[in-house]
Specification:
It is a single chain. By secondary structure, the chain is of the alpha+beta class. 46% of the residues lie in helices and 12% in strands. The protein has helices at 14-24, 53-69, 76-86, 91-99, 106-119, 123-133, 142-148, 155-162, 167-176, 184-192, 195-203, 214-224, 226-232, 237-251, 266-276, 284-299, 311-321, 331-346, 381-384, 393-398, 420-423, 458-470, 477-491, 494-497, 545-558, and strands spanning 354-360, 369-375, 378-379, 389-390, 409-415, 425-433, 436-443, 454-457, 502-508, 515-522, 532-539. The strands form 3 sheets. The chain has a 5-stranded antiparallel β-sheet. A 3-stranded antiparallel β-sheet has the order 1-2-3. A hairpin with a 2-residue loop joins strand 6 (425-433) and strand 7 (436-443). Helix 3 (76-86) packs across helix 5 (106-119), helix 14 crosses helix 15 (266-276) and helix 15 (266-276) crosses helix 17 (311-321). The termini are far apart. 39% of the residues are buried.
Amino acid sequence: MSAPHERPTPAPSLYAYARSLRDAAPGPLPPQGGLSLPGTARPPYGEGAPPPYRQAREIVTRLLRARLAAPDTERAAAETERALVATRVREQLVFPTAAALDPADPVAARALARRLVREGTTVHGVAAGLGLLTGLGEPEDVPCLRTLGWLDVLFPYAVEALDPLDRPAAALLWLTHQPVNAPRPLVEAVAAGDPAAVRERLLALAGDDRTMGPDQARRVAEATGLADLLDRAPEDTALLGQALRLLARTVTQGDHGVEILDHADALALYGTVAARAHLLPPDPGHQARLLTLARELHSGAAHLLDLPPGRRETVRARLLDAVREPAEAGRRADWIRRTARHLRAAGPAPAPRLRIEVAVADPAGPTAVETRILVDGRPILPLAFPQGRGDTPEELLDSGALRAGAEPRPVRLGVTSCAEACCGALYVTVRREGPHVVWDGWRRPGRPPELPAYRFDAGAYDAEIARAEHDHGWTWPARRTARLITAGLRDRPELLTRWGLRRGWISTHFQDPDVTVVTFTGPPADGAGAPRQFLWRLPDDGRPPADRAAEALRRLYATDPRTLAERP
């Protein structure tokens, strides 16, 4: 037997490691970005490629189920951890697989989870424990979860496990680790428990709506207890204005899906902001954000918030009552007028079976235009595909994609912000069946619950599609110009094909919506080199869109389009 001094020193548990660093830290927060793991936290995977995604999830699921069915022993955590490492499954898949389990014996699963998070020495073991604790954790687990959240790799798992137990703590931990646009002074004020400093730091947050994403806006409101701050300061219009801004950002569709339905205080904030909206100065920013809240409550994800009967209509009416006709000119003022008219016209009337609306985002932020489909008044996409945004009206309406024909055909209703090839899209099959139009055959990524088939009266369906296709009230001059150019090239494709070019996307610029953008693909003018995309910008010059589109089409006929495009 080896002498004691020859035995390798056991690796410390990651919990003990994080606790020692926390206790030695000069303050109550980890540094921005968190602390690095010890070198022992990631043992070698061994030779060979890791199993592919689906197989990896199945391997981890079977392993954890087998461990949960076995008797609980002091060695259970170590044996589970060694088995997880031996699978060669990448650590990033261990947590979501464990979190997705529905254990037959929650008590046994909780016991194993606690052993793993306190005794685990590898990311695999601790990630499995954190996954099991997501949904099974109890208040006594909060200190351990907060401590593990000091470590950079483990913090996102700790945040998910904390969310159902202590939302302010989870939000604060999330904000602590954000490397970009992170409100560190605000985080420090929250950690210090100083309400006056928290208010001051809240009001000091950047006023540009483009700099804060929906996820960060939600976490700021949750970490600061914004709903409680408003309750304690009913006359504080500055704080109310910041609450409006944060809530308006939260309801906006982000790159990673819908945030408002995960907002712990969404109902309270919606109600408070609506009740006090009349106290806010009628500047364009406040007016636009009030309309954003009303629009999302009408046709966006916020419509799905669990409000008592009649409450949604009351809140929406209060928000709209506080919106005044803007005196100034400009695209944002035009958007306020157009959106207010639309929402007031919608009113509280009973919802039709099918309704199609085009939603245009506040021009102060990035341009976003999506087609929203409501069935019985409820939006389809936030329910069926929350990570995606509705396709543009050019793709769904101008193309006639939603028209029901004799032959069934798949129609894409929404797509993720990255790309369909990356994170998927939502498809439905549209078919005519006697006096009905049927939507069924849904397709979307993963293995989510099945969606129902929808049946529509064919006459009412055709009328609604025709109405939506001919409703151009949501557009603005540069967008109308783009749609007219698209229609012209659809009717006369030879304007591009005669030059060996193929039409690309035609719309308005994402960052400057008053610029029409025409793209096309083909070889360089000299014929040398591979085909590439060309981009032609047409800034709005104040002329009618029909005149601008007609001139653009004439120039495409008379001049090689490549000479009009930007240089690469």
